[in-house]
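Board notes, transcribed. Complex of a protein with MTE.
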Amino acid sequence: MHIHRRRGWEIPERLATPEAVVLGRRAVAGGLAAAAFARPAAAQWSLFGGKKTPPQELSPLTAPRNKTYEGGRAITPERNVSSYNNFYEFGMSKDVADAAQALPVRPWTIAIDGMVKQNRTIGYDDLLKQVKLEERVYRHRCVEAWAMTVPWIGFPLADLVRLAEPLAGAQYVVFHSLADEKTMPEVKQAWYPWPYTEGLTMQEAANELAFLSVGMYGKTMPPQNGAPIRLTVPWKYGFKSAKSIARVTFTDKRPTTFWEALQDSEYGFWANVNPAVPHPRWSQARERLLGSDEMVPTQIWNGYGPFVAGMYADKTNERLFA
Ligand code: MTE
């Protein structure tokens, strides 16, 4: 079991997590603030709806490592990455891995719609036949000031954009996570703007770093990490990396994303990592490496400036970093 002891330097989680933003709404909505914390200890199996869900088996999945994107830090132990998660559809704690075993990973389809040559639905297996998988070690920086370094397996987001055949006028790509009331307990809570939605500009989506991950650590993606397919945009705060993507929409209007809808002043559209721009309630100067007590300085663009900074040179009037 992962026991987390708070040190002096740590942000109390109730202050740091995005969930704190919505607790107020919860209280107003139903006097349920206390219930947010009154979660039973993790069971061996997910028990949502009275049904037991056994742990999902992961399959081996390997692909050649693309050395252009080495993480520059020790890889985080897999057990930490797969047991300390943000997946609000399954609960507001970090301890959602058991509940997430109920995620209906197969069959999986992705709807592609909006400003595209033709709306369509693509099966996950069909999609994988049309792309070339590779492994990339990326640093991930959560807005809550923790970080991890993960060997993801996936393919460039640009490949999906190409297959989708967007129209010339499309300016944004919107990612919608699955929102399944039958398996995701929090999706029943109407005060969240489900489905979880994230967005990128077309230019960001075409950036070589933007990646769709379908596995990690040489295996298919665990449900709690966003199976079967999730976004991985390592120069942005982790909430931009939407999990379990069920729909991709192309549009000429900037989308209002999940966290933006809940608290725009704290979680904006751009959300690029910058240690010099504090979150309204805590510093972003340093980050805790998951699986250890080590604190390290945070880098602007999470250290990926050479790949991405140029995209923002003309965006001087935008709130790029929060
Ligand atoms: N995607 C969905 N659908 N739901 C979520 O709650 N949390 C985000 C992001 N993607 C989230 C999500 C946040 S805040 C982070 S930091 C990362 O997923 C965490 O990914 P991990 O659990 O694989 O570490």
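Residues 85-89, 142, 177, 196, 225-226, 238-239, 241-244 surround MTE (CB under 6 Å). Residues 13-312 form a domain with the Sulfite Oxidase; Chain A, domain 2 fold (CATH 3.90.420.10).
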